[in-house]
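Predict structure. Chain length: 328.
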Amino acid sequence: MLEDRTTAASSATAWPAAYPQGYAVVDVETTGLARDDRIISAAVYRLDARGEVEDHWYTLVNPERDPGPVWIHGLTSEMLEGAPLFRDIAAEFAARLDGRVLVAHNAVFDWQMIAREYARAKSEAPVRQRLCTIALSKELGLPLPNHKLESLAAHFGVVQRRAHHALDDARVLAEAFRPSLAAAAAGGVRLPLHECRPLTEWSDRPAPRIGQQAGYGGYRQGTWRPSRKRPACPYPNPGRYEEGKRLKQGMRVAFSGDTSVERELLEDRATEAGLHVATSLSRLTSLLVTNDPDSGTSKVVKARQYGTPVVDEAAFGQLLADVEPADG
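Prediction complete.
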């Protein structure tokens, strides 16, 4: 019934010429939420330009380490032990993403996990744009109580069968995205598309392998990893960055969103140059580095409120090459 209504709405709509030619609705389940966590299952529903389902695909992935919160995703070490490694499914995964907009619920997370896996495999995912269904629901003004997938599904009458199972989550999202896309087209809504930048550099830290005990009794992001504390910046904050001038040692720099160089490597370079890497943005922040200045992240919003200067990653890389020494 939902499919019939969506198809009818799509065919009756003068479809916006600027809309993408195809979509890959993606869900990945992972060992956790941190930068060195791994994908353990992935699913893709391919949709055409008007949201019609073309096909779907699903695979388990051996993360070569402990699977993390089994009580959430249900995938045990035994189930994953014989699964292919990511590098073994990378080509097929890429073929299903190629030339399409990646669609996901909280898309930045799925994209970053995928980009990191391809970087580990010394390759790149053929994705240049992503669309977050949370952002789209906001653009459409949907009356949702929250931004959970289950709330979006309920709004469109889509029944979840196995929450946190990649294939079913991708199915649910595809079924909810199709009427969302049709509504956006009918209203001439500009889709909230963001650039996907593949990682050009990557470093990994060792993590527990499958079968090793990792102590998940109080599982949360980074439970079993040593915290990475940076040394305090030895220079005073000279104030805000001014366009056309050099960065100066002691300036507070914050980062937001995707970066083509893996985030921690970029932060390391900033630290080595004598800058203070800030984890949050305040009135004292000298500069925000982001490739998505129009995004609605809390740092970007605060930067607008405070008038904090903003540059993209490429400009920041050039500024890092010539940082002014601190006074005295």
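Summary: The beta strands are 22-30, 39-48, 53-60, 101-104, 129-132, 193-195, 252-256, 276-278, 287-290, 310-311.
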